[in-house]
Amino acid sequence: MQKKEKSFGIQMLSVQPDTKPKGCAGCNRKIKDRYLLKALDKYWHEDCLKCACCDCRLGEVGSTLYTKANLILCRRDYLRELGDFIQQQITYINKVGSIKLEK
Ligand SMILES: [Zn+2]
Ligand SMILES: [Zn+2]
Fold this sequence. Notes:
Number of domains: 1
Number of strands: 6
Distance between the termini: 34 Å
Radius of gyration: 14 Å
Helix content: 10-25%
Structural class: alpha+beta
Bound molecules: zinc ion
Strand content: 15-25%
């Protein structure tokens, strides 16, 4: 049975200098860059919206991210079989209920 893909669009927005800086959902700091990413109804630094598995910057890879068990993944990692690393992360995340990853 084919599973339905959970994909979400990523928008790159330019930050207007006269607006209040938005908080980044990845690192919780204010985004003072010229551009920010909007995904999952949250704002992100370009550096902070990364695949939880391979660390690639999702704003560069394409304009789509995928989620699985609260992990944010690139298409490649979403589609392949997830290894032990991700399984551990999923267990961890289900415990803490957060999208933040411990390194
Ligand atoms: Zn950030
Ligand atoms: Zn990846």
